[in-house]
Amino acid sequence: MQTLDYRSAAAADATRFVLINTSHPGNVGSTARAMKVMGFSDLVLVAPRYSNVKGKADAISLASGALDVLDGARIVGTLAEALDGVTYACATAMTPRDFGPPTHAPRELFATLATQPQRVAFVFGSERYGMSNDDVYQCHASLSIPTAPGYGSLNLAQAVQLIAYDWRQALGGFEVVSRSADPVLADAVAVQGALEHWREVLIDIDFLNPQSPQKLMPRLNQALNRLQVTEEEIHLLRGIAKAVQKRTRLPNDSV
After folding, report:
1. Which of 75, 54, 170 minimizes the C-alpha distance to 120?
2. What is the pLDDT of residue 154?
3. Does pLDDT of 61 surpass 80?
4. Which residue ranges make up each domain of the chain?
5. From CA 123, how far away is CA 128, in angstroms rounded?
6. Does domain 6-170 fall into CATH 3.90.1150.180?
């Protein structure tokens, strides 16, 4: 077993995820991925089925880019060891226990918990049996993820992802990443160049009669103005026009 030193191992991470008696290595890898995508890294495994779980192929495969979280996971023998340094532990138990801690929906509790200077741990039981009563009793609160009536079965890693997401949102969340720069709108010269190019194409394919244009080009001009096309879109339109001309013109014709 690894000696757990909360203060040195997770000084910059006030959130811990604890898995008890995990059977399937894939769930450990998937948990590491679920944590990392929400910005968490402190993972503790309590007596997993395989002592070398971090090296199992399924764990490595399903970690998918979160190998640093997986490699950094600590293995301990008891939940008490896993909670060293934690000031507020949340059990994930769908069924309330007699004499156990109060049960909350995650968001309901997190709205308050996120405003407190706590070292928080989220504790998850084994895939088959969940958390034992004794483990639940060591926690300050019990979380029950709201699910459809009559079927509340969640895969372990899915439950971790839901809790990690809601907790991250309670802590302020992450900004949605948009395009690195606003698109550059095409100027009038670029629009007219594209229109002239397409006028040639439309004549080549006999769609436009230059002797009787029927105001087709002004209408296309107004359509492009309404759309406020970008420079990239103008390049696309001219590329299409060029490809059409290659198919319709004789080899000696100039483009």
Report:
1. 170
2. 86
3. yes
4. 6-170, 188-248
5. 15
6. no
